[in-house]
Design a protein that fits this description.
Layout (H helix, E strand, L loop, with lengths): L11 E5 L3 H11 L5 E5 L2 H11 L3 E5 L7 H9 L10 E5 L5 H9 L4 E4 L4 H24 L2 E2 L4 E2 L1 H18 L3 E10 L7 H18 L5 E6 L2 E7 L3 H16 L3 E3 L2 E3 L1 E10 L9 H18 L5 E3 L10
Parallel strand pairs: 1-2, 1-3, 3-4, 4-5, 13-14
Antiparallel strand pairs: 6-7, 8-10, 8-13, 9-10, 11-12
Helix pairs in contact: 2-3
Length: 315
Amino acid sequence: MPDRDMSQRPPLVLIANDQEWSARSLESILAPNGYAVLRAYTGIQALERARTARPDLVILDAQMPDVHGVDVCRELRSDPRFSATTPIIITTAGPSGRTQRLEAYRAGAWEFLGQPLDGEALLLKLETFLKSKLEVDRIREENLLDHPSGLYNMRGLSRRAREIGSEAVRLRQALACVVFAPEAGAEPETSDTLALKIAEQVGKILRESGRASDAIGRLGPAEFAVIAPATEAQGAVRMVERLGDVLERMPISNETGNHTLRVRAGYCAVPDFAASPVDAVEMLLRATSALRHLRAEGNNDRVRAFEQLPATPLH
């Protein structure tokens, strides 16, 4: 059995194979060695389960009844909902020569194996692949940046909020926290691919338009924040109007067509942060509350201050 921390959840392997004997053979190797197994019987089913279950490893049979395993691999590698760090292995009972192997590698497979499989060698490869994936995932989690937008993630933004807050106290500066929500027109829900497109485009605009002193981050799939020192309430409103105008003129294109954004924002601002009873992170939370209250109202207002909320604001 691999040397693995058994206090953590077992790594999940998606096996996509319509041949019962072959899939059971793989499962009989993996399950006793600490892996959880999820099955798929067609290429379409493999795509669906890989996107929703987010397995740690994927083993695809090349000869599936509907979609070739190489095409499934290629589709997953081009899907932003599927992690680029997830190892994919393609197995085949058919031809396994150099041409087939190169085709699999070009599609993004980490390995291409012919039948019969060497169980011991397979386990050693999976353990190496899994360690690599988990290490990259750990580094990403510890990173302070949100990769799709190029902005700070919540961890990075919280750290910068404390740093900016300390400087604002020392200088007795004003401080404003603004949280934006760019929405794709009147669509009630945003697909994952469209959300990523929005994150990329909004991130680019915010990076180009923000001041060097500002901390700009992505709080979630559809919420972005700016922590702006030396900025009072009126400056926060002007920021929303300026950035909102830019973002709403910017079309977002994906496979479903062109989309226009509608921007709404909440903010919290104080004239002298040294005299403020709340810290910068709490101001971020208050700005988020103002935004969500505005969105819940469903009117056409673009911006709302935390101070304008009822006594018991929405969270």
